[in-house]
Request: fold
Amino acid sequence: MKAKTLAAAAALAFAALAQAQEPYPSKPIKLIVPFTPGTGMDILARTLGPGLSERWKVPVVVENRAGASGNIGTEAVARSPADGYTALVTASTLVMNTSLFKSIPYDPVKDFAPVVLLAVGSLALVTHPSVAANNVQELIALARANPGRLDYGSPGNGTPHHLAMELFKQQTGTRMVHIPYKGTAPATQDLLGGQIQLMFLTVHVVLPLVQAGRLKMLAAGGTERSSAASQVPSLAEASGIRNIDTDIWFAVYLPAGAPQEAVTKMNAELNALLKAPGTAEALARQGLHAVGGPPERLAQVTRADAERWAQVVREAGIKPD
Reply:
């Protein structure tokens, strides 16, 4: 009996050792997107996922776990086994949420291992044609001369579009009134109708409306010009303020404690896919600019933006939902 027990224990130990020695990856990988299909992070996951699968010869499954402004899917990844087989494909809302909720079930810095900064989505500062400002400096002067008289919209309280305008107000010393909507579509409709005067919207969404003369685009991109509207100055250029990055970034994380091999290999493969022929063009059609780089770059952005947006929320007096 004792011999059988020893044999069984030895077999289990051998199986565990064999599994530990299997090269990564050796089983399906799950990419969890904490928002609904069609969002920027979902597009990235479904664009890059098949490439990962083809290169690694393992299935790569994209799973949408939406809810609570991304907190449900994000917590699911944070609580997943740290084996490198469950990844989070998310946006800068990851760090914004920590200041926008009374309590949050994860720490964006401590609970995740940064893998790669995938892309940036540029926001454009747009106004209704009736606004008597044809550039950002004129808008700043108009807002300062008429404090509280201009209304700006957003897809909702605490959204990147809302925080971008709060950052703009703080950096320019202007006072405008926030009108939150339930989604981008109704906010855009009221902007087109002149019920509100301005807002931040993604460049690729508003470009046709600007070209049709239905909106004015005063700036496109935060610190750098948007490739989709390269003739339009960035917000930093147009305002003369350097520290005014309003763009949305997208990234991949693994749970904290994931094997270094998994982080290194996933980073290398995703960087290669971002540089592959056709990828930049595919992302550009969705208003995204491929970035890439080492995990350390994403780690730095995560820490810096967690602090930066927390300060914006505090100064704006935005109350957690």
In short: The two ends are 62 Å apart (CA to CA). DSSP finds twelve helices and eleven strands in the chain. Confidence is low (pLDDT under 50) at residues 14-19.
